[in-house]
Amino acid sequence: MKHSTKIILNIALIACFGVFLFWAQGNLDGYKVQILNLIAVNTILALSLNLIYGYTGMFSLGHAGFMAIGAYVCAILILPAAQKEMMYILEPVIWPFSVMHAPFFAAVLAAGLVAALLGLLIALPVLRLGGDYLGIATLGFAEIIRIVFTNITPITNGALGLKGIPAYANLPWNFFWCILTIYVIVKLLSSNFGNCLRAIRDDEVAAKAMGINTFRCKAISFAVGAFFAGVGGALMGSLITTIDPKMFNFQLTFNILMIVVVGGLGSITGSVIGAVVITILLEWLRFVEYTVEIGSFVIPGVPGMRMVIFSLVLLLIILYRREGIIGGYEFSWDDLVKRVNARRGRK
Amino acid sequence: MKDPVLKTTGVTMKFGGLTAVEKFDIAVEEGTISSLIGPNGAGKTTCFNIITGFYRPTLGSVIFMGRDITGMKPHQVCEAGIARTFQNIRLFAGGTVLQNVMTACWVRQKSPWWSAPLLLPGALREEREMRDKSMELLEAVDLAHLAKEIATGLPYGAQRRLEIARALATQPKFLLLDEPAAGMNPQESSELMDFIRKIREQFKITILLIEHDMKVVMGISEWIRVLDYGALIAEGTPDEIRANPKVIEAYLGKEAAVYVKN
């Protein structure tokens, strides 16, 4: 297929999706729109983790930390000064955070950049570690961020968190950032730089011998992943309008890791589909936590039952389908045409 | 005599109390094919690791094309023009044959990593050139028809050739081959010898190899160096090495003496 045809098809696909979003905003109820929003944000987060873990092979559990940074940077930038002054009741907000203000797009961008910068800073010492040690170190980093945010009250309002964040993150914004994330990550990974990242994942020694500055490439991958995690956190904050440090615990990282593993490590299509499936299931499975009455029997609802089910699903996937639910398949127009033709040929 | 392309002086490598390589002095002439042989554990691979920057020698220096490369990082050594293969094949398992070779082109690629999402025309052009160059290289090693296959799915001999092609993609001046004929049958290793001679002519490179297969070593090398217990015990042309009593004692043994007579 010609390159220009593919571009037209991509644009057409995005346009169709835009029409769907327009329809969804007018016709679906708030709950369903919220799920669509969450799908967009989770896709961003899953892709950013997949870049770090699935493509570069760095086992990172620090995503909640980057999200926290993104969420706080964005919230402080979009909250009006007067509202900030009212909200900080433990200790007054200090200058310049009290007067900082930026439009939503710039705030999200700044959130990503600050997260990327911090990602780069922790990458320098931490990326010398490999495998499980890296996981533990990044997990520790995320915890440090959470504790620091709880304690720098004049900036973050401490444990009380930030409330009434302007809800700018609507469907168009979320999906704009989602599509931008997909675009950037797909382009990076399909370039030769992407080959280098995969090479580092597959065999770091050989990658070094082939002239790849593995430390630099890993740091870049980590920082780009952190950037999009920060963006995801910023959108998440504006979407649910309330953030506090407790929100950014390990559970959040686990949810994203689950999407990535279920969708398939090292598969972009997998991460997108994983985000859709897991986000919908997380909502739909709520019924298992309700109290159930069968005749005179009453089974009390167990809060957190959903996560037990998800853990079991994750276990089964790791055991029986390592490559994820769609089996490492990567969507491409060429492949689609081939499949359609093959089906026609059979008939 | 011309200046050697690679020269090591007094290279010594100690791991704790163990001296793996001691006073390793070699001078490799440009455009030659030479071998480094020795019994198992003699320190051959350690020498390779020192030259390619994976180990920093305890003492001594490595000079490549008049430039001191001692203590450089492996990727800097590769950038300077030394490429290598590994004793146990180390391909990028998840990638295709073409991706394996393209990855090695990265070291010569000038456009920065962030140029791809921005669709910079210069970067796109360079990417296409790298792809074409990689395909040419695959054609040269007779793997072009397998370009889209997953690298580790290839037969053993083809994987060896691919590893060499990948090393060549970094545009080296000097190629180190660590046991290229390991695990090959006589037919395959004789093809490999022709192949190594061919790439030397085609890419104008100097080749240094470690090998246990004596037929390959004697058949291909213009110069042989023998290492035993970390020290060079002899060097010379294949005929000299064959006749050297020290070498026969340390390495080749009686069996080889019979081989020499025949």
Largest interface (C-beta under 8 Å): A-B, 28 and 37 residues
Portion of residues in helices of chain B? 40-55%
Strand segment count of chain B? 10
**Poorly predicted regions of chain B:** none
CATH homologous superfamily annotation of the largest domain in chain B:
P-loop containing nucleotide triphosphate hydrolases
Q: What does the main sheet of chain B amount to? A: 6 strands, mixed
The amount of helix of chain A comes to: over 70%
Write down the CATH class of the largest domain in chain B: Alpha Beta
Under CATH, the topology of chain A is which? ABC transporter involved in vitamin B12 uptake, BtuC
Structural class by helix and strand composition of chain A? mainly alpha
Domains of chain A (count): 1
| Secondary-structure class of chain B | alpha/beta
How many whole angstroms does the radius of gyration of chain B measure? 19 Å
Overall description:
The complex is a heterodimer of chains A (347) and B (262). Chain A contains 15 helices and two strands. Chain A has 347 residues and is mostly helical. Chain A has one domain (3-346): ABC transporter involved in vitamin B12 uptake, BtuC (Orthogonal Bundle), CATH 1.10.3470. Chain A is globular and about 70 Å long. The mean pLDDT of chain A is 90. Chain B has 262 residues and is an alpha/beta fold. In chain B, 40% of the residues lie in helices and 23% in strands. Chain B has nine helices and ten strands. Chain B is globular and about 65 Å long.
